[in-house]
């Protein structure tokens, strides 16, 4: 049974990500952990009266968050029942990134699925620096869901942006293969370079390694030259009408080129497709 963490700030986009997750794994036995992180107060109380006021604020925030988590659970229970799915709520008193990291380790989470925009706790979770920080703290895959992803959900084609730098994927892509097979998807791999060049023998060998890893999933391959990586990725995603885009994060090399701080605004504004991001450890 998969263990899936759903961080929420109770925003519309967090709810969209939750519903997307339930739909994506509708035929899979899963336990979904709906987690809200309650960040600590910034200033420490300096007197008895201020400590009491501080405790009152903390209790109020705690009770309010518990009520909101119960509302999230009620909303899920109003959806069509799925006997494959179980749910638990979690209130973690910590900063967002630390809360996710500790929960992943404590519960042995398999996947983190979250919205890319929110109202409070994840309000800066654009496809940029905060997402990169989260990804580099996690060993498990992360799926980042943009607004309106559920209404246009079509996983017949999944994109795979790659710099072809990996020789051996191990079991890194098992989840991607599971999703592709469950939704009868083809995988469209794309290699984007700002140079005008053909693939070197090493890159051709790594392309073959990717094909072998993805078998029996059908993989198409596209080479885009003479454009910046972030532009080529966005154009490819839009022109192919991808249902999801896969990225491999290997020592922040390709991932950082695609989603570094300078690119984050344009990418988050224009790349309206769910991202599934895997961390790769060199073997």
Automatic annotation (TrEMBL):
This is Putative universal stress protein UspA. It comes from the Bacteria. Belongs to the universal stress protein A family. Residues 1-146 form the UspA domain. InterPro entries: Universal_stress_UspA (IPR006015), UspA (IPR006016). Transmembrane segments: none annotated.
